[in-house]
Known about the structure:
By secondary structure, this protein is of the alpha+beta class. It folds into three domains: 40-228, Immunoglobulin-like (Sandwich), CATH 2.60.40.1730; 230-328, Neutral Protease, domain 2 (Orthogonal Bundle), CATH 1.10.390.10; 337-457, Orthogonal Bundle (Neutral Protease, domain 2). It contains eleven helices and 25 strands. The strands form five sheets. Strands 8-7-11-5-4-15-18-17 form an eight-stranded mixed beta sheet, with no helix packed on it. Strands 20, 21, 22, 23, 24 and 25 form a six-stranded mixed beta sheet that branches. A hairpin with a 2-residue loop joins strand 9 (108-112) and strand 10. The longest helix is centred in the C-terminal third of the chain and has 18 residues, at 395-412. The radius of gyration is 25 Å and the shape is globular. Mean pLDDT is 93; it is low at 1-29.
Amino acid sequence: MPRPAALLACALVLLAACAPTTVGGTASAVRGPTPGAPGVGDPYFPLDGNGGYDVQDYRLDIAYDPTTDVLSGTATITARATQDLSSFHLDLSGLDVGEVGVDGAPAAAVREGDELVVTPAAPLALDAPFTTVVGYSGVPRTLDDLFGPSGFFHTDDGALAVGQPDVAATWYPVNDHPSDPATYTVAVTVPAGLAAVSNGVLAERTDTTWTWRSAEPMASYLLGLAIGDFDVREYEAGGLRYWDALDPDVPGLAVATASLGRQPEIVEFLSGVFGPYPFTAAGGIVDDVPEMGFALENQTRPIYGSTFFDDPVSGDVVVVHEIAHQWFGDSRPLERWQDIWLNEGFATYAEWLWDEREGRGTVDERFATETARPAGDPFWALRIGDPGPDGLFDDAVYVRGAMTVHALRRGIGDEAFGRLLTAWTARAGEGATTAEFVALAEEVAGRDLDALFATWLDTPAKPA
């Protein structure tokens, strides 16, 4: 047996042999490719999205048969590896998978619940671009989630794909989290006589195939699809190209038509508040789907449930809300769902600004009405800065979110508030977080605003 000093020397030699190598003074362990994570680690929905890669572009070539409810498609996904990858996940719920290839070579693919695990023929190196092609088919399912029924609706004359937060994986393979936006091309083949409407610009159309291109990056849940007997209207206004699609069977069709007709006026008004409209296309979709009780800010082309068009005021206001999201939520998608007050608070505040413009009371009056709620009202109990997954769409997130915006406006003054809004929206394409918004507000205001935001976002009580 060696003496203790000799033993220590041997141990040091072994440690040196096993220690990580250093490059430029930084330790780096030598390891081979590893699987990408099955989720992005969102605090509310940890398995939404996937790790190990960043999607740049989706091309979806799909066909839908309303007589059988079957959707068949090929997804071509262009991405960049963010680590050395031995395998990676795609989100895909309930559909059958056919052939899968990566960079032109067949790849192994297995289902693990609502995940598709893809193992390429050769590992993918860090920063390497790669293209995945997935063939798939089946009957997409309708979800029952935070909005009630959402996801992929099979309608009386076609289909409607709309929802939040998990709609995308019901009809195409995807990295399903808003922190990984990408560009899209969607080519949809349908029976002759039906329309197929999606986001962005109508790039090409034949008798049966409609091809839509979204050149600005888009979060996955914002991709919409409407198939059916629609009256599709294309026009230009204010330098933007609009496509509206209205189901002739929608109750309140005249109101819906009139409210969508005000879109150019609404875009012009909100551009004067938030800065230039962030996209090259606009429009809206209204379908007759009685079980759909919501509207959603699908990028460039929001989708509206027909119940909002019972009267002209509610019709106009919901259009204002969803168009406001083009600045707040679409051009700057959330990095995590917890910060959803940024989306819904500003969209609701846009409603208040519009009502003031239309002579239905000032924003100060609306703020006073809301603050008159008694301290014991459950409305004050939710911490809207961290509402929890079950509270994402609570009324308080919307209304107290708007109140937070107005309290900030009062606190820093109109001039600084205006500069803050245009500075925030000018960073289109960047992810959005509450921390970043607070930091920018403090920079513009030139002072600490922690107390204001703590009071309005993080205190489960009525502000004093």
